[in-house]
């Protein structure tokens, strides 16, 4: 059974940083994609960043380009989302998505709140 678990959310002041972790388990595939999405209250879920496991290719939404960094810790089977220069507009529940071929798995989400 594939399981995707996010962690690392919390309350941070504007300009601060957080690092989210996505830990995936229960699979043997070597090539797949991990994406970070976020959803604020009353808004649609939006893509934030993604990484291709296998070639390391990364992509970022324009709103986070230059501030967020996605990376893979292969030893721990963990994908990180380093978030710097956080702003109130970044407040949302952040979800980790694993896509393997035509299968998609979601984590439970972790709350990120940016406020003074």
Low-confidence stretches: none
Classify the helix fraction into a percent range.
Answer: under 10%
Structural class by SSE content: mainly beta
Radius of gyration, in Å, reads 14 Å
Largest sheet: 7 strands, mixed
Strand portion: over 45%
Kindly state the number of beta strands. 11
Number of helices: 0
Shape from CA axes? globular
**Average residue pLDDT:** 95
**What's the helix-strand series?**
EEEEEEEEEEE
For the terminal residues, how far apart are their CA atoms?
40 Å
Task: Lay out the secondary structure.
Elements: E1 3-7, E2 10-12, E3 18-25, E4 32-39, E5 46-53, E6 58-60, E7 68-73, E8 78-83, E9 92-100, E10 103-106, E11 110-114
Parallel strand pairs: 2-11
Antiparallel strand pairs: 1-3, 3-8, 4-5, 4-9, 5-6, 7-8, 9-10, 9-11
How does this structure look, described?
The protein has 116 residues and is mainly beta. It has strands spanning 3-7, 10-12, 18-25, 32-39, 46-53, 58-60, 68-73, 78-83, 92-100, 103-106, 110-114. The strands form two sheets. Strands 2, 4, 5, 6, 9, 10 and 11 form a seven-stranded mixed sheet that branches.
